[in-house]
Specification:
Blueprint lengths: L1 H11 L4 E4 L5 E5 L7 H9 L4 E4 L1 H6 L8 E4 L6 H9 L13 E2 L2 H12 L5 E6 L5 H9 L5 E3 H5 L9 E7 L8 E7 L6 E7 L9 E7 L2 H5 L7 H14 L3 E6 L2 H4 L2 H12 L4 H7 L10 H10 L3 E5 L3 H9 L3 E6 L10 H11 L4 H4 L7
Parallel strand pairs: 1-7, 11-12, 11-13, 13-14
Antiparallel strand pairs: 1-2, 2-6, 3-4, 3-6, 4-5, 8-9, 9-10, 10-12
Helix pairs in contact: 11-12
The structure holds guanosine-5'-triphosphate (GTP) and zinc ion.
Guanosine-5'-triphosphate (GTP) binds next to strand 11, helix 9, helix 10, helix 11 and helix 12.
């Protein structure tokens, strides 16, 4: 993991990293934030022409559905804003180049995994290091100018199971749950921290523990954004867990369904231009839901919780915990309030992502 963590920082600064493969090392650079000369510079460094790796969600949105991410050979002069437009623009010009798409190989797919892990747009410039440039690139790795990540480590960079560290805790009395304790966990890349809010003294022996998995939403949780129902769900969950006699709320650093705040704001702008919540994410290259719940499973293990009563409308959360070995004894709905701003968002979640929201969409909401 160590090299991956360092690579994430270089990528977030817009620098290339090397995905190491004995036969054909691959230079990789994010498209997001790339300088106007990025393609030319990368070509010089690698001694071969760079190509663009696009995710299958982006390709499907562009009208080229495929089973895997694909590589697009770059026509001469495609740089800067035009490159960004092809990679993640709202009005892309893919045109005739689409004929040149080929399936991405494992190292090229790993390049996209690194972008996602770094919370960048999942589109990458990649260039194979030509034999004539191998010694020069190896020298850059040796002197620390360029970071090398083994291909398998890059491919697994989103797997964090067992790597979460329990860091610190404190008693935090809440308005709706006086007897609460916050326990902070940190992922190895240092980018993401998750908090377990333990309300009361849930006794695992006494039966399933009331549990809420809440994905961070800065706009909704903190500012009461009307575009979603997150803030209300958060506060309702705390009150509900308290009313159930105590339990746990995991506050997970999965802003924007795992795409990060920067990308969620981009997605909101696309929604204002007419896309729904899922298509907006696809247009940026993301899946409809990028969240992974291994961190939640690890936090529950650390808290000694194996059987839960889950407060959610999202069947994926039930499935993810079950797959992680947690017994979900029952599911309880948890609603916010419908308004003119979040109606389209909630309808799309129900109709296209299988969320169980009849209670709120038919007007019967809301608890509290
Ligand atoms: N990408 C994206 N994320 C959004 C949008 N609106 C809200 N979110 C994020 O969606 C997540 C909502 O999380 P949750 O409330 O935990 O989950 P949920 O999947 O709706 O499921 P339950 O509330 O448990 O039924 C948060 O991370 C929000 O930041 C949007 O339009 N686009
Ligand atoms: Zn929200």
């Amino acid at each position: 993991m160590h090299q991956v963590e360092r690579a994430i920082f270089d990528l977030r600064r817009g620098l290339p990293v090397l995905i190491g493969e004995a036969s054909a090392p691959l230079l990789v650079q994010p498209v997001e934030g790339a300088a106007d000369t990025a393609v030319a510079t990368l070509a010089d460094r690698a001694g071969s022409p760079p190509a663009l790796v696009l995710s299958r969600h982006r390709l499907a949105w562009l009208g080229h559905p495929r089973a895997t991410p694909a590589l697009l050979a770059l026509p001469p002069g495609l740089e800067g804003e035009r490159l960004a437009a092809v990679a993640f623009g709202a009005e892309p010009e893919l045109g005739v180049w689409a004929d040149a798409l080929v399936d991405a190989d494992p190292a090229e797919r790993a390049a996209l995994a690194l972008m996602r892990r770094a919370l960048l747009i999942p589109a990458a410039l990649v260039a194979r290091v030509a034999p004539a440039r191998r010694d020069a690139v190896a020298a850059e790795v040796a002197d620390g100018t360029l970071l090398e990540v083994p291909a398998e480590a890059a491919a697994r960079c989103q797997e964090t199971h067992g790597l979460l560290k329990r860091i610190s805790e404190a008693r935090i009395p809440l308005e709706d749950a006086f007897d609460s304790r916050f326990i902070l966990f940190r992922e190895p890349d240092g980018l993401r921290e998750h908090v377990a809010v333990v309300i009361g003294e849930p006794q695992a022996a006494a039966g399933p523990v009331p549990l809420r998995l809440h994905s961070a939403c800065l706009t909704g949780d903190l500012f009461g954004s009307l575009r979603c129902d997150c803030g209300e769900q958060l506060r309702n969950a705390v009150a509900e867990i308290e009313a159930l006699g105590g339990g746990v709320l995991l506050y997970l650093a999965q802003e924007g369904r795992g795409i990060g705040l920067a990308n969620k704001l981009r997605a909101y702008t696309r929604q204002d231009a007419g896309l729904d919540t899922l298509d907006a994410d696809h247009s940026l290259g993301f899946a409809e839901d990028e969240r992974r719940y291994a961190v939640a499973v690890d936090m529950l293990a650390s808290l000694g919780i194996h059987r839960v009563q889950l407060l959610t409308n999202n069947p994926r959360k039930v499935a993810a915990l079950t797959a992680g070995g947690i017994e979900v004894v029952s599911r309880q709905a948890l609603y916010g309030t419908l308004n003119d701003h979040n109606r389209r968002y909630l309808s799309a979640k129900a109709e296209r992502a299988g969320h169980l929201l009849e209670g709120v969409l038919n007007g019967k909401a809301t608890r509290r």
